[in-house]
Automatic annotation (TrEMBL):
InterPro entries: Znf_SWIM. It holds the Pfam family SWIM. This is SWIM-type domain-containing protein. One of its GO terms (molecular function) is zinc ion binding. Residues 145-166 form the SWIM-type domain. It comes from Vitis vinifera (Grape).
Amino acid sequence: MDALLLLDNVAYARLDDDYVVAMEKLKTYNSDLAKWVEENSPQHWAMSKFAKKRWNKMTTNLAESFNAWLKEERHYTIFNLVMTHMDKFAHLACDHMGSTENWKAVIGPKTEEKLLENIIKSGSLPVYPYVGGLFKVFNMKVYVDVNLRECTCTCKAWQMAGIPCRLYPSLKPPCSNDHLEGLDTVE
């Protein structure tokens, strides 16, 4: 087994139970490496230990993003730079709108495919309702909290992907479109 793959499993484990399993495998592979991981503040970088959202960001430097967008044009005069930016943005928006005309459903084909895949994976998982839109779903390993009001899940898959995780279909009938709120849709 590869040490880098084992470290990835530790870093990207979304549930505490998965983190423990990944750490056990790492200890079996190399106990010194596992000790080093434990001594280097996993609460700051391991997904299951890190309390705050740490995805959905391209960069924190807006100027860097803008420079990458207009790499060739950044030496233009202000007027030409602004006009080129508007033109590139208009083309991007038109291309996106043109591609949505081919969508067969109200959501994009890749999103629809992922939702259907999650529906198939969910099967018939045991669900226990709590108050305020909160449900406990047993995913055959641990109980996971799914909050329908906040569109979150303690497995963090919903927050990371932006679409309901595989636990969601066990809560709602597939004909409901509540889970589409906030996704790119075609009216």
